[in-house]
Amino acid sequence: MKTQAGNNKIKSTQIQTIHPAEIRKEFPILNTQVNGKPLIYFDNAATTQKPKVVIDSITNYYRNQNANIHRGLHELSDRATQQYEQARKKTADFIHAKEKAEINFLRGTTEAINLVASAWGNQFLQQGDEIMISQMEHHSNIVPWYRICKSKGCRLKIIPLNDVGELNMETFASLLNAKTKLVSVAYISNALGLINPIQKIIDIAHQAGALVMLDAAQAVQHTKIDVQSLDCDFLAFSGHKMYAPTGIGVLYAKRAILESMQPYQSGGEMIDKVGFDEVTYNELPYKFEAGTPNICGAIALGTAIDFIQDTGMDNIQRYEHELITYASDALKTIKGLRIYGENAKNAPVISFNIEGLHHYDIGSLLNQYGIAIRTGHHCTQPLMDFFGISGTCRASFAFYNTKEEIDRMIQALNHIIKMLTK
Ligand code: 7TS
User: Fold this and answer.
1) What dihedral do alpha carbons 332, 337, 343, 348 form, nearest 10°?
2) Is the model's pTM score more than 0.70?
């Protein structure tokens, strides 16, 4: 596939279908052998593989461009600064933020949620206030809220799930009241692949006077996001789950909210003037980027965004929906296999267990076939408690995966079942 990094005019309408064979050529790691078998990588919800353009962007940065940003008068520093700020603009456009000052480059989703819980929470929460999250959240969207609620004397309220594991929206509405200051939920569940009705959540929460934070760690790589039309107040995501390197992530927030917030960490680029008696802070977005940031990571995130845009999010979504439907139908042919939290519109993430077998054994044995899935609680222990299990097998797909790979997983699972139930 020919990628045209930086060409924003290449849109999904120009490529009608995903050709996995072509896409796969862009991801060198997919040629790797594992245990003497070709790698089948179904752990994309944990982290995605990186295309050549992203790898090249990293190499090129350190070979030709490395310099610290915003602080050098010399040419190299100027170039690095321009590229870093260009990546911020690409990121703003990618989620349709009003302006690039609303994009804060951080390490990832976890850091972004911690920033909001800590900086916003410490400043604006009062004793007796309430924060609402859901039963299906990743620990990164539980623990920061748990901690700030403990320290401020606030109440952490939980949106319960219905029988199949979806958010119970009626109960959600009834739990809101004037004390609810913020609702923080996953756009897409990392353990189940369920897509939450976030527009409804935002609208209902706003009517009750609460702010809304979206954990979009599992959404940005699978669906178009428009923060202005959603009207969410905060949104967090990680570069490494969308074909960019680890160590770079984003906190989006509305300008007025960011301006009202005190800084999170201090030092470096976040200052305006420093004296021993008084310190003033830099303007947005530098106010929340203390110290030398991950310059190369941000630039590579910009390249990953180009790669996604060139492929077309509509095409990615259509193809990934084909994959998840195919996988779900195929898994259901296996006797004793239970899928958790499935509905017709799931993102390409599927969690299952097989009666009488432990998820850990299934995962270890699939590894012998060169197949990488994730097993365990997926950092969602309260969700596992809801289902009364210790964990699941989770297969999560990206648009470089194929139906043939899914067939090979099904064959392997059938072998494993035969072997373990002899
Ligand atoms: N929120 C969700 C919904 C996630 O899926 C993850 C990571 C995080 C937050 C944290 O992201 P980080 O980049 O800051 O670590 N989820 C997973 C997973 O499902 N398997 O490994 C990591």
Assistant:
1) -80
2) yes
